[in-house]
Design a protein that fits this description.
It is elongated and about 120 Å long. With 501 residues, the protein is an alpha+beta fold. α2 runs antiparallel to α3 and α2 packs parallel to α5. A hairpin with a 2-residue loop joins β18 and β19.
């Protein structure tokens, strides 16, 4: 009796694996929890249809694994009133599995409930026992078939956060029902044992129901909670960057979707100084797709902050970086009107037959702002103009301060987020000169010439290369849409999983 019950307890592993796989889906969707209440840098929304699709995929994967499930042999002994019984249950195999239907319910304001209905499992194996009482020895052996049908499991969970900012998870309910358990013994005196087997099928069914929920609660309250407590809250990007993606507030559960709210800030590695910005509140939106992601311009601003702070935003421009047919633009002695010496005559007078070089340095943090009209960038800097003389030396000419505003229009092309410059304006002002006074309108004309042949083409090249949509093995994104909104880019997409053959 005891051996049969333990045997079917092993069969209950299927329900436990269902639950564990669902926990993985939940953890991936919800990310990591932080106790700091600030506006998120990005927001992730998973719709009920997305959750159900994820649970269906997980169940399909599990169904294939159940057929190959290795059930360990069971050996033991027990004392009964008339003596001691030793038993062995060996060579157990899963011979059939009925995949259950699955459904995920989002409990508004609290958490998730995962429902599995009408699962079935069939197993066979070998049994053997020995009875000993004094000099009396009795043993018998044979095979068995076991069938569990009409099994259902409903598990509810809630999520929160601890003082260290890691997520917590708790089971809030579990119900397991099994319609029937059938056991048939073969070989030996099985014809006799089978007369009484129905007397133990009900206790086995009740034991399975209790143990499956016990396993489910342990998987949530012990195993999953321990894993979540050790999850990292940031990722190293390249060699010099750290991206903080912890949650800044607990997940929000609505009837048709759940939202997670992430920090979304870049730091320089080894320097977790907060950027002097605050993310704007995301505008509300509705979508029929499985997944919706809001990406704030706050993330871009933290990148600019780190670049400026580390002194990376500087560049020396020479004629060698210009296209072949444009290298003469930086000459001081000109043969055409599209030439620096033509626009700024003092340059040609003081340093004839030379080439202009620009030392460009950011003077403050660059900023970015996203709106329905596109992506607007603002840059302020200093430009030192030099003349590269025939003998190779540099002669300082003048210094300016410049402010630049440009507008990028973003679009999605073949799962790559691309952009193109649709507006560019600048203001340039002289701050120091070794070659006499230069009017601001002349400086603006000269800078715009350089912008048109170098800055704007390079921005367009970066925009054309774009940002590829994340690639996940065996996953394809479909019905993907990109929309610019107030202070954010919103991406909505469906997901299709195609497992390898």
């Amino acid at each position: 009796m005891v051996s049969t019950r333990e045997n079917f307890t092993n069969g209950a592993k299927a329900c436990r694996y269902f639950q564990q796989l669902m926990l993985v889906v939940v953890v991936v969707c919800l990310g990591f929890v932080s106790s700091t209440q600030i506006n998120p840098g990005f927001q992730f929304r998973l719709s009920r249809s997305g959750l159900n699709y994820g649970s269906t995929v997980a169940l399909d994967i599990l169904s294939k694994g159940v057929q190959q499930l290795k059930v360990p042999d069971i050996h033991g002994s027990t004392h009964i009133r008339v003596g001691k019984v030793s038993y062995d249950v060996t060579s157990m195999h899963v011979t059939g599995f009925t995949k259950p239907s699955t459904n995920v319910v989002i409990n508004a304001g609290s958490g998730l409930t995962w429902q599995l209905n009408n699962a079935g499992l069939s197993m066979d194996g070998r049994w053997h026992y020995k009875f000993r009482k004094g000099f009396i020895r009795i043993q018998d052996s044979g095979s068995f078939d076991g069938h569990v049908s009409g099994a259902s499991l409903t598990v509810s969970v809630s999520l929160g956060q601890d003082a260290s900012g890691h997520p917590t998870i708790s089971s809030t309910g579990c119900q397991c029902n099994i319609d029937s358990v059938k056991i048939r013994l073969h070989g030996g005196a099985s014809w006799l044992y089978n007369l009484f087997i129905k007397q133990i099928e009900r206790p086995v069914r009740n034991s399975l129901r209790e143990q499956i929920c016990t396993l489910a609660r342990k998987a949530i309250d012990v195993n999953a909670r321990a894993r979540l407590a050790t999850l990292p809250t940031e990722i190293v990007v390249g060699n010099d960057w750290v991206f903080d993606y912890r949650l800044v507030s607990p997940p929000a559960f609505q009837a048709e979707f759940l939202d997670s709210f992430h920090k979304g800030e870049f730091f320089a590695k080894g320097d977790p100084t907060e950027a002097p910005y605050q993310a704007a509140v995301f505008p509300p939106a509705t979508s029929n797709q499985m997944v919706t992601i809001w990406v704030s311009d706050y993330i871009l601003n933290t990148v600019g902050y780190v670049l400026y702070k580390r002194g990376i935003l500087k560049h020396n421009l020479t004629k060698n970086e210009l296209p072949v047919d444009e290298k003469g633009v930086l000459n001081t002695t000109c043969t055409s009107s599209t030439c620096f010496g033509f626009l700024v005559p003092q340059v040609a007078t003081v340093h004839p037959n030379a080439s202009v070089e620009l030392e460009m340095i950011a003077s403050s943090y660059p900023t970015a702002s996203i709106s329905t009209g596109g992506f607007r960038g603002n840059f302020a800097g200093l430009i030192n103009f030099y003349a590269r003389l025939a003998n190779g030396s540099l002669a300082p000419m003048f210094k300016t301060k410049v402010s630049v505003t440009f507008l990028l229009t973003a679009y999605l092309d073949n799962m790559v987020i691309q952009a193109t410059v649709t507006d560019f304006s600048s203001k340039t002002k002289l701050t120091q000169s070794e070659i006499g006074h230069i009017p601001d309108d002349v400086l603006n004309a000269a800078f715009n010439l350089i912008a048109n042949i170098f800055i704007i083409p390079n921005l367009n090249t970066v925009g054309e290369n774009g940002i590829p949509f994340p690639s996940i093995e065996d996953v394809r994104f479909t019905n993907t849409e990109l929309e610019m909104d107030d202070h954010c880019v919103r991406i909505a997409t469906d997901v299709q999983y195609s497992p390898p053959d």
